[in-house]
C-alpha cells in the first residue's frame, strides 16, 4: 500500500509527488496519457512559483532555459504591469512551455523516488484506494486528484463543482510566421477583437485571442487555419504569413470551483479544484502552489508527524486563493471579451490608471505573481539572509521577521 496515490501527471501532480517524497511519504502517480502532451497550454512561470522552485533547489535549470519577461498584463490592457518593483529575487515571469516544465518536474519526482505509471485510466475510488480500468486496485491511504477540470476523482468523491458555463470562446494557433512582428511580440485590442502574438521555441509563434464572433454558449467547431488567418487579419491587418500549424485550439470561459478541496481521504489540487478562462497565464502556477501547500501537510500526516486535522487547513487556506483566482480571471475576461464602445473606453481609462498610478500597477502585479497570497497563520516571508536556500530540506525554519507596514510589506 502506498501512502498517497496522485492521479494526474501534469505540473500540479508532479510537484505534489516531489513534495510528498521530500516529506518521507511513499507515492505513485498514475496518468492516463501514455506520453506527455506535445502541446503546451501554459507558457509562463510566475514569480511566486519561481520562489517555490528556489526553496527546493530546482530553480537553476528553469532560469537557464526560460526567457525573462519583466512586465505582465491585466486583461490584455496595453499599459503593462512592471514586475521589477516586486519584492522578490525574481521580478519577472519566465517564458517556458508547459511541456518542458513538466519534464523538469518529472525528473525531480523520479529522482526523489516517486513511481509514475502512464497509460492507466482510473475507473473510480474504492475503500482501499483507486480502481483502474481493467479491475486493478491500487491501494493507498490518501488519493490526490490532480486530474484536470473533468476530474474523475472529484466526481467519484461526490464533490460539487459549481460555477458558470461557457458563454464565449478564445482561440489559439501555434504556427509558423513568414513575416512575424518586428519586435517578436505584438498585442492588439479593438472593435474587431483582441490578439497576442508571442514567439515559442523552434521558430513557432503562438497567436491567441478572442473576437466578437466567439460569443456563443455552444461549441463553435474545430478551429481551422483559414478561419484563424481571416480572424487575425481582421484584428491586426495582417496574417503574418502564417502556415504549417502545429496546434489549433479553442477554449471556453466556463468558471467553476470545487466546493471542498478535501473529502475525507480525497484531496483536490490544480484544475481539478478550479477551472477558469486562461487570462493572465496564472492557472498552472496556482496549481503548483496548491500542491506546495498540500505536500508537506499530507506527508507530515502519513508519516505520523502531524494529526490528520492538519489537512483541513489545506482547504481553509487554498480555497480562498482559488476563489480570488476565479474573481480575477472573470474580471480580466470581462475586459478582454467585450468589444462595445463602452468597454473599449473602459479599457482605455483603466490602462491609463495603471500607467499613472504606481501603487495600482504594483498591487495588480502582486496579484498576478502570487506574491500577495496570505493565510490566517501568516503571510509569505521574502528571501532574507538566504532563507530560501535554508528551506531546501523541507524542514521547518525559524526566522525573525522585521516590522511590516499595514499593507503587509516590510517597513
**In which range does the helix fraction lie?**
25-40%
CATH topology of the largest domain: FAD/NAD(P)-binding domain
Which CATH architecture of the largest domain is right? 3-Layer(bba) Sandwich
Number of beta-strand segments: 23
Number of self-contained structural domains = 2
Strand content bin: 15-25%
Largest sheet: 8 strands, mixed
Backbone structural class: alpha+beta
Specify the CATH class of the largest domain: Alpha Beta
In summary, what is this structure?
Helix content is 33%, strand content 24%. It is α+β, with helices and mostly antiparallel strands.
Which tags fit this structure?
Alpha-Beta Plaits, eight-stranded mixed β-sheet, FAD/NAD(P)-binding domain, five-stranded antiparallel β-sheet, 11 helices, globular, 411 residues, 23 strands
Q: What's the structural blueprint in terms of helices and strands?
A:
Elements: E1 2-7, H1 11-22, E2 27-31, E3 44-45, H2 47-55, H3 59-65, E4 67-69, E5 71-72, E6 81-82, E7 93-95, H4 98-111, E8 115-118, E9 122-125, E10 129-132, E11 137-145, H5 152-156, E12 163-164, E13 169-177, E14 186-190, E15 193-200, E16 204-210, H6 225-236, E17 242-252, E18 255-257, E19 262-263, E20 266-268, E21 274-275, H7 283-302, H8 312-336, H9 341-356, H10 358-369, E22 374-375, E23 378-379, H11 387-390
Parallel strand pairs: 1-2, 1-11, 2-8, 11-20
Antiparallel strand pairs: 3-7, 4-7, 5-6, 9-10, 10-11, 12-18, 13-16, 13-17, 14-15, 15-16, 18-21, 19-20, 22-23
Amino acid at each position: 500500500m502506498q501512502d498517497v496515490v496522485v492521479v494526474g501527471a501534469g505540473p500540479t501532480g508532479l510537484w505534489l509527488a516531489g513534495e510528498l517524497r521530500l516529506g518521507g511519504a511513499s507515492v505513485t502517480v498514475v496518468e492516463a496519457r501514455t506520453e506527455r502532451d506535445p502541446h503546451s497550454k501554459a507558457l509562463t512561470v510566475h514569480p511566486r512559483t519561481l520562489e517555490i522552485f528556489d526553496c527546493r533547489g530546482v530553480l537553476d535549470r528553469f532560469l537557464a532555459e526560460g526567457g525573462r519577461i519583466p512586465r505582465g498584463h491585466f486583461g490584455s490592457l496595453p499599459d503593462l504591469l512592471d514586475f521589477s518593483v516586486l519584492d522578490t529575487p525574481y521580478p519577472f515571469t519566465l517564458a517556458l512551455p508547459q511541456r518542458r516544465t513538466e519534464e523538469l518536474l518529472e525528473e525531480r519526482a523520479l529522482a526523489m523516488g516517486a513511481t509514475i505509471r502512464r497509460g492507466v485510466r482510473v475507473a473510480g475510488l474504492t475503500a482501499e484506494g483507486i480502481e483502474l480500468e481493467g479491475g486493478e486496485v491500487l491501494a493507498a491511504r490518501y488519493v490526490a486528484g490532480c486530474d484536470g477540470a473533468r476530474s474523475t476523482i472529484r466526481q467519484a468523491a461526490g464533490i460539487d463543482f459549481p460555477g458558470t458555463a461557457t458563454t464565449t470562446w478564445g482561440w489559439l494557433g501555434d504556427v509558423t510566421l513568414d513575416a512575424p512582428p518586428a519586435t517578436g511580440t505584438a498585442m492588439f485590442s479593438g472593435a474587431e477583437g483582441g490578439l497576442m502574438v508571442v514567439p515559442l521555441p523552434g521558430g513557432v509563434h503562438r497567436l491567441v485571442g478572442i473576437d466578437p464572433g466567439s460569443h456563443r454558449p455552444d461549441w463553435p467547431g474545430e478551429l481551422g487555419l483559414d478561419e484563424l488567418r481571416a480572424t487575425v487579419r481582421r484584428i491586426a491587418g495582417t496574417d503574418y504569413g502564417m502556415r504549417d500549424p502545429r496546434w489549433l485550439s479553442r477554449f471556453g470561459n466556463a468558471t467553476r470551483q470545487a466546493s471542498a478541496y478535501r473529502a475525507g481521504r480525497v484531496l483536490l489540487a490544480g484544475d481539478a479544484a478550479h477551472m477558469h478562462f486562461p487570462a493572465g497565464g496564472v492557472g498552472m502556477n496556482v496549481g503548483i502552489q496548491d500542491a506546495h501547500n498540500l505536500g508537506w501537510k499530507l506527508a507530515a500526516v502519513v508519516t505520523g508527524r502531524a494529526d490528520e486535522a492538519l489537512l483541513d487547513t489545506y482547504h481553509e487556506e487554498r480555497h480562498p486563493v482559488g476563489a480570488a483566482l476565479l474573481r480575477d480571471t472573470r474580471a480580466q475576461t470581462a475586459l478582454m471579451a467585450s468589444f462595445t464602445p463602452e468597454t473599449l473606453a473602459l479599457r482605455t481609462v483603466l490602462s491609463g490608471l495603471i500607467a499613472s498610478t504606481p501603487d495600482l500597477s504594483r498591487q495588480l502585479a502582486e496579484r498576478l505573481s502570487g506574491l500577495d497570497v496570505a493565510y490566517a497563520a501568516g503571510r509569505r516571508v521574502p528571501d532574507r539572509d538566504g532563507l530560501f536556500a535554508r528551506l531546501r530540506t523541507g524542514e521547518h525554519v525559524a526566522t525573525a521577521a522585521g516590522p511590516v507596514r499595514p499593507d503587509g510589506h516590510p517597513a
